[in-house]
Write a structure and sequence with these properties.
The chain has one domain. Helices cover 78% and strands 0% of the residues. It contains nine helices and no strands. The two termini are 15 Å apart.
Length: 211
Amino acid sequence: MKTDDLITALSADLPPARRPERRLLLCLVPAAVLVLIAVGLWLGFRADLMLAMRGPTFWAKAAYTIALAISGFWLLDRLGRPGVSARAPLLVLGLILAGVLGLAAYELIAMPMPDRMPAVMGDSARVCAPNIVLLSLIAAPFVFWAARAFAPTRPMLAGAAAGLLTGALATTLYGLHCPEHTAAFVAVWYTLGMAIAVAIGALIGRRVFRW
């Protein structure tokens, strides 16, 4: 019997009440609380937060990162169930990324040449991705512990999905600190921070999710 067939057979015998996705959802609560505390105590909330929350830019950034978090959760849930296709969440993930990159490209093309580099770099390009990675590491233990209830046959890919979930969660809350507002900055530096979290998650998943 092949390893994948054995895992499928074993997972079929799991008790139906196990509901690993519910366990994962519950673990996101303390993870988010700790990341939120870290943002407040370490980085500080942006001074104009209440004003920013009245405008569309703040919510556009949040929509992007929340959509990626949902995609990461969906992908992890699919990868954690042997024999279930992960094509749908991967397709949605690709569409989200393509949409943001397309919006950033349109924004840059529409603005004068001298304004393009400042739009990409903003005032915090050097610290944005590292901050996101550090915040994601705070959430990672909760997500990976909860995800051990799944039965992934592709540990690295499942780890990458968990990394996407932690990175997107951290980035969403990082938005409470970050005042950057251009689509180009978000597309480059927010995405880079989450991509690093995905890579770290893949390495962790290779060991944590190994049968």
